Structures are given as C-alpha cells and as structure tokens.
C-alpha cells in the first residue's frame, strides 16, 4: 500500500471542504490526484473550485496533521484480510475507475482479487417474493458456476438470495455495503456476512464504524453497478431502489437485464418497465452470458462444472412425470404424493434426489421447479 497516497486520498475523502460526493465528482472530472497536482491553481479556480478546495487538492498531507480518525482507519487496514484501496492503487477496480463519481477510497474486507474479476450485479426488492428469491438464487448459482463473481448489496430479499446462490456454487461474491464494512446490516445476515468474508469480499466507500443512513444506499448503488459489466434486476416495484441501480448502470454504459415475473405481482412491474425500455429479458443464465460476450473474457463464460447444465439434464419418464407436477408457485409434498401415486417415503427419496441434482428447490415446506 502506498502510504503517502493513501493518506492523501483519505484526507480528500474526509476533508470539510469536499465530502465524499464532491471528492468523487472531482476525481471523475479531473482524474487522479497525481494529475491534478500538475495543474496550476488558477486552472482549478477557473473550474469553480474554492480557494480552500484548490489548496487542499494541491497540497500533500503533512503526517502531523492526520486526525485521530484517519490514523484509526490506517490501523484498521493493517489487519489481515483488510485494505484501504485508493483511486490510483493497482488494486482499485478498473471498471469503477471509469464511472462519473468514483469513490476516492474503498474499504475492503475479504478477498481483494474479487474486485477486478468479471463481475455481474444482481439486485431486487428487499421484500422479494418466494418466486423472486428462488429465481435470484438459481440464476446467481448458474452465473457463478459459469465463472462470474456475483455482486449485490447484502440486503434482505433478492440480494441475500443472490449471494447465497453464488456461495452454493462455490463462486466468489461481493457485498457492497451502505455502512462501514465492519457493520453487519441487516443484523440477521450475520452468518451470510461471515460466508461472504471467506468466499468473497465486503466493500464500502464509508469508513469502518459508519452506521446505516438513508442517503448511503443510493450512493452505494452506483458502486454495485460500477463494479460490474452488467446488472440483473430480478424483482422491483416501480419505486424500488433497484431501479436506481439500473439507472446508474445505464449512465455507466453497463448492460441491463431484467427477469420477468407474474403480471399480478407489484414486484414485477419495475422489471417489466425495464424490459419495455430495452433491458434484456432473462429466462436463463445463457441470456446473460451471450450478451456479455466480447465485454468480459470468454473463459469466464464457460461453465466450470456440470452444475450449470442441470436444467437440461435428461430424466427417467417416471421422474419427468413427477417434475411436471411441480407448480411454479410451489407444491406441498402431500399433494405431490397423491398426484403421483407415491408413498410419502418414496416421494421423499425422489425429491431429495432432485434437490441434490439441482432440479428442485425446497423452501418454506414447498417444492419448486428449477
């Protein structure tokens, strides 16, 4: 870690004359600090910066002037598995550097190599339906198995399902936080957070210890889309924050995908609106992979195991008949046993085989077709 530049960027991010939003926009417009410091002060003033802002940009940080808070952040980053990555660091995500307001620093905990992987974002409603959570988990599993790192926001609902799907595929996953990376939000995702730490990364532009705040989450959405080659919206109402992420993705020239849903569901309306506006309709992982060819390395789009092929696996006639009985809204075992003419024990064995093969999902006491 380049200590001097890290201190400069931390000071920029926390400077009273800027704040995170202004500092990010300046980097997006003018480039890195090393370039800005070659500009005459008069030119910075002509761009509308105040004298205090111009001076702060042009003056390297004096070690003695570091605040106690900044020193604490530097100490935090010394622990194993933690890092503060500034805008000019070689580890700073290449795609994120291209957006209009790139964060001056990223606080990262977990596996740093995730940040520059071929990434795909998956977002959706916090109150996602069983249908939406099921589709998100399955799709994240397939995309993860194909070699993509799945990026989301660790919120309840669709985000959680997306992370779990990637983890189940032994794929990498990134959670972009609206808090400090040391804060588990929501609290009930503590176990998921620990899994992501071992199989991915937690990322935030907010310093460790930063609590959740309403204004943080729209800001973090631009990072979710900015890290990725494309954004998949699984479920979203017309006022969903997921549509904010899609808007950022459009501004960032990212691919936008949407999963259709039942026309009676309010969570489908945002996705259907995106599709009407030109988003790619997603029925399978292949719809995403084909669209990303030429944007990300082709090797990343090749399945790394047979798991991605489970939807097309051939079944025995009697098994195919049982699978055909499964309803999209979910089926109870008692109903399936009656329809298939099987005993409860026979049915339980079959359903376990299907679940292990990835042909069905078991949620809330019901079985769903994959």
Q: Would you give an account of this structure?
A:
The chain has 3 domains: 108 residues, no CATH class; 183 residues, Rossmann fold; 57 residues, Arc Repressor Mutant, subunit A. The chain has 17 helices and 11 strands. Helix 8 packs parallel to helix 9. About 3% of the residues have low confidence.
The name of the CATH architecture of the largest domain is 3-Layer(aba) Sandwich
- How many domains comprise the coordinates? 3
Low-confidence stretches: 305-314
Give the helix tally.
Answer: 17
Q: Could you spell the SSE succession in H and E letters?
A: HHHHHHEHEEHEHEHEHEHEHEHHHHEE
Compact description:
With 370 residues, the protein is of the alpha/beta class.
Characteristics:
370 residues; two-stranded antiparallel ribbon; 13% strand; alpha/beta; Rossmann fold; nine-stranded mixed beta sheet; 11 strands; single chain; Arc Repressor Mutant, subunit A; 17 helices
């Amino acid at each position: 870690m380049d200590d001097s530049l890290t201190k400069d960027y931390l000071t920029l991010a926390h400077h009273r004359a800027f704040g995170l939003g202004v500092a990010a926009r300046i980097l997006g417009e003018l480039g890195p600090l090393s370039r800005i410091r070659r500009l005459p002060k008069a030119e910075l003033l002509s761009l509308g910066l105040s004298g205090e802002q111009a001076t702060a940009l042009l003056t390297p940080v004096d070690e003695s002037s570091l605040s106690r808070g900044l020193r604490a952040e530097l100490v935090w980053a010394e622990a194993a598995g933690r890092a503060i990555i500034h805008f000019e660091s070689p580890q700073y995500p290449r795609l994120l550097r291209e957006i209009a307001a790139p964060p001056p620093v990223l606080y990262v905990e977990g596996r740093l190599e995730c940040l520059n992987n071929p990434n795909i974002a998956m977002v959706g409603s916090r109150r996602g339906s069983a249908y939406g959570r099921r589709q998100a988990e399955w799709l994240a599993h397939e995309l993860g198995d194909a070699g993509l790192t799945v990026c989301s926001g660790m919120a309840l609902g669709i985000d959680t399902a997306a992370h779990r799907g990637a983890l189940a595929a032994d794929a990498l996953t990134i959670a972009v936080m609206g808090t400090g990376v040391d804060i588990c939000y929501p609290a009930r995702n503590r176990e998921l957070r620990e899994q992501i730490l071992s199989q991915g990364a937690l990322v935030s532009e907010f310093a460790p210890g930063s609590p959740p705040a309403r204004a943080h989450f729209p800001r973090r959405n631009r990072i979710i889309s900015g890290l990725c080659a494309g954004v998949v919206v699984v479920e979203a109402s017309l006022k969903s924050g997921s549509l904010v992420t899609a808007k950022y993705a459009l501004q960032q020239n990212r691919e936008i995908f949407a999963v259709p849903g039942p026309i009676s569901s309010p969570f489908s309306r945002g996705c259907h609106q995106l599709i009407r506006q030109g988003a790619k309709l997603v029925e399978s992982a292949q719809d995403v992979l084909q669209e990303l060819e030429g944007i990300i390395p082709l090797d990343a789009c090749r399945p790394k195991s047979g798991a991605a092929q489970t939807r097309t696996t051939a079944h025995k006639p009697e098994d195919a008949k049982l699978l055909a009985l499964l309803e999209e809204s979910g089926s109870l075992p008692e109903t399936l046993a009656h329809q298939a003419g099987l005993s409860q024990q026979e049915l339980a064995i079959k359903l376990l085989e299907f679940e292990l093969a990835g042909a069905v999902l078991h949620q809330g006491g019901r079985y769903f077709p994959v």
